[in-house]
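Final report, section 2: Outcomes. Of the targets proposed, Cobyrinate a,c-diamide synthase is the one most frequently requested by collaborating groups, and we therefore present its record in full.
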Amino acid sequence: MPPVPPRIVVAALRGGSGKTTLTLGLIQALADLGLSVAPFKKGPDYIDPFWLSEAAGAPCRNLDPYLMGGPQIRRSFAHFSRGCQTAVIEGNRGLFDGMDTVGSYSTAELAKTLEAPVVMALDCTMTSRSVAAVALGCQKYDPELDLAGFILNPVGTARQEGVVRRAVEEATGLPVLGAVPRLKLDMPQRHMGLVPPQEHARVAEALHQAARSVAAHVDLERLRDIMAQAPAWSEDEPPEGLLPASPPSGPRPRIGVVRDAAFGFYYPENLEALANHGADLVFCSALMDPALPEVDALYLGGGFPETHAPALAANAAFRASLAAAAEAGLPIYAECGGLMYLGRRLVVDGQAWDMAGVLPLDFVMKRRPQGHGYTLCQVEKPNPFWPVGYEFKAHEFHYSEPHPLPGAELELAYRVRRGKGLIGDMGGLMRRKVLGTYHHVHVLGSPGWAPGLLQAAKG
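The predicted structure is given below as tokens.
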């Protein structure tokens, strides 16, 4: 196999520091040079990868040390960067932030796993020489990390840039590759992140605006030299879970996927794994379609049903067809926003909206997150998708709170050993062949997920 392409990890000191905007600009600027770019995002995330995909013109893949582990990350990176001329990996949170005091699962650990140099964005807001002390601290903190340069983001004036640039380079001996002025981009935010591009009518203009700013203020040739100096390595094996052990045989079940502006949280690897294992995917919309299509199982992902609640409630025909299919025994696997859609009502700002009514719950949107972070679950009850005893890693991030209907008898499939359960420390609400959960899985972290959904579809 050919070696992995030249690469760079873009990191910062904290989340919300403009790292995604800077990465978008770098990817777009490299693409504008005629280079094919493989985009990657560290950590569990759906929205930033949407934007990175738009910039690169190729699907962005998630690399998560907690969910996948190092060997799977190297396999995934090699598999999905194959044939590309460059790869850009956006870190998350602070460079050394992890689950513990030694930075397990941090962006720094990911960079070392990929043997990738790191370019760090330094926030220069209302400061000057102190930035050099921060840069020097990061350089010395982990000698095994290939910290290769810095980008000042943002800077206010030419004088401030000059002082910071000289101070950082004199203190660290590393280059400052650019100084980006504060950008005024038309990219609105929601729930501690960007709004998906599907809801942003001026995606292309926003991307080009970022690219123009970055290209004008970052030394792209020097950046490419750093990327090219990354060590060569190769990986022959595809990531576990993406492909079946042997080619699928027999009839191909039809698995429906509800994908629209309300439900867009699907890792591309999950969809590809279903197809690779023998499913024909049938996409539909809970907002626009008059009824659920004829399928053998349904995958209902997360998203923002709360921002589309009036439209989802208005499509009563689709809700009724989905409820009838569930009652007739259709296997349905629903995550987070999909779980909320399967409830009776969704309450947003005090107003209740009718949902599908498959599960005996109402969901109430709160002002603060009700579950956020990595999870670890162990299956305890028989269900259509997971074998009893199976342990899987996942992640959750939701603002909704579940309220069981009076007298409802809830049957839950698994115990949540890390994270927050749906009811107590239990998750995975079941009814007939439906399972709804707040926990998002990535197939490369849970290789048994796709075969389980295929098996349920085959009956």
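The CA atoms of residues 363 and 402 lie 5 Å apart.
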